[in-house]
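Figure caption, in words: inputs first, then the predicted bound structure.
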Amino acid sequence: MKNFNPADNIQDLQYFGEFGGVNPSISDSSTYTFLSAKTMFDTFEGNMEGCYLYSRHSSPSNLYLDKALAAMEGTETANVSASGMGAITPTLLQLCGSGDHIVSSRTIYGGTYAFLKNFTPRLGIKTTFVDITKLDVVEAAITAETKVLYCETVSNPLLEVADIAGLAKIAKRHNLKLVVDNTFSPLSVSPAKLGADIVIHSLTKYINGSSDTVGGVTCASQEFIDSLKNVNSGASMLLGPTMDSLRSASVMKNLRTLHIRMKQHSHNAMYLAERFEKDGLKTVYPGLKSHPSHELYLSMINHEYGFGGMMTLDVGTLEKANALMELMQAKNLGYLAVSLGFYKTLFSAPGTSTSSEIPMDEQIEMGLTDGLIRFSIGLDNDIERTYQMMKKCMMELNVLTSESILTE
Ligand code: PLP
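Bound structure (pyridoxal-5'-phosphate present):
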């Protein structure tokens, strides 16, 4: 773990284009010619290294990005996909079939939750949702049918932290695959190094970082990725959520600045979280000592990338949350929008947006309150200026009162 640095691994890759280009050439073909029929047959069988058959299976551009993301996560290889859900759903369908069971964190992205709760039961796959921070509860939910333990490193939207090493031990003991969605914490946490079998990202967020495309990746062993791409039985190959080569080339270029962006996202989020907590607002940020998993997270992260850019504030009611978000947007502090990892701050009320798939009683049970605002803190150059402007909005709407400001 000591010598593993994900950003250095990306930096050390060298890809050249035709004619000596400093960027690799973009493959602009859906199909590929063969000089011999035998080579074509062998490629179909998956036995020909360096040969391409058809771009739903793989393309040179996608393989460059696969390799870079595998280097980042420290896995043997990877498979990029057209969206984060395009990585999550084939991965789970490859691991589970009718009669199988999944133990999943209950605080996960709403789309993943909806897939496990509403869609996979149609295929005979059952899921038990648990509080992932309680390892004894996780272990007690495992049955003879369980195949997968599923969680997010830092959960969406409540920012609970999963003890990846602890979960990996449980997975090993019961012969399960530990699948971790690391979308909120690229570079900061390296789940495979902590024992996860499969690491997934929505590239849509921090990794691409420019909110101009959706994308996803599954990072895993060669054996698992080969099974996903198998022409006869692979869920990725057969369901077809393939990333387009033009897009993978653009995501690749953005990946190179991820380390700089993550440091600034983390710096800005830490700054605002500390200030708003001091002002008396209910603030959740894994970098705060008050966060229930602060010590655990501290023990898991690659320190230089910090605690990430996600933070939540509870402003009491949905009305106040909505008014504050509208005012902050009007003052050009960020955008009222779902998603995360953009240069501009993004905010939304998860209960009515990204987590609206989760039924109200379950939202209450997991602590997803009406007044909760999820912030993806941007790359603002002067974060003190941002803080002052946000505070002014909060004062105007009585989210913060003059007493709390005076006690500073
Ligand atoms: N995982 C997490 C943690 C997410 O926040 C999201 C999307 O919001 C996804 C997965 C799904 O990714 P995509 O929207 O790229 O399909």
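The radius of gyration is 22 Å.
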